[in-house]
Design a protein that fits this description.
This protein has helices spanning about 5-15, 20-35, 40-45, 55-60, 65-75, 90-105, and strands at about 50-55, 80-85, 85-90. It is mostly helical and about 110 residues long. The chain is elongated and about 70 Å long.
Length: about 110
């Protein structure tokens, strides 16, 4: 069975009436705008064992680097590794801490001390 080439498809496409070409592009775009329902694991599973720098961790938690450093200084977060002077933080620790921050924020205010 012979396969159609891209050149043949293009030539056929150029012969279509304008409204059919427009419909073709609409069909191509449809899957891109359909809501995608991915699980948390599908989106972030590759990060389960990842380690984050202090800056990345602060961004993930939605706090300033100064606030993040206070959390570390007060023992609320601990680094799991160091590379030179950079501390690295485990995803699972950050995820648990973020949940606790969200719980505290839902009840009232949060403090770094």
């Amino acid at each position: 069975m012979r396969q159609t080439t891209a050149d043949e498809v293009y030539r056929s496409f150029t012969q279509l009436p304008a409204h059919e070409r427009a419909r073709f592009f609409a069909l191509l775009a449809e899957p891109a705008v359909q809501p995608q329902h991915f699980s948390h694991e599908q989106l972030f599973g590759h990060l389960a064992e990842a380690r984050f720098t202090a800056q990345e961790a602060a961004e993930y938690l939605g706090v300033s680097i100064a606030t993040f450093r206070r959390y570390v200084a007060h023992g609320k977060l601990k680094s799991v590794a160091e590379i030179g002077r950079s501390q690295l933080f485990a995803t699972k620790d950050l995820k648990a801490f973020k949940r606790s921050l969200q719980d505290i924020r839902a009840r009232g205010s949060v403090s770094a001390t």
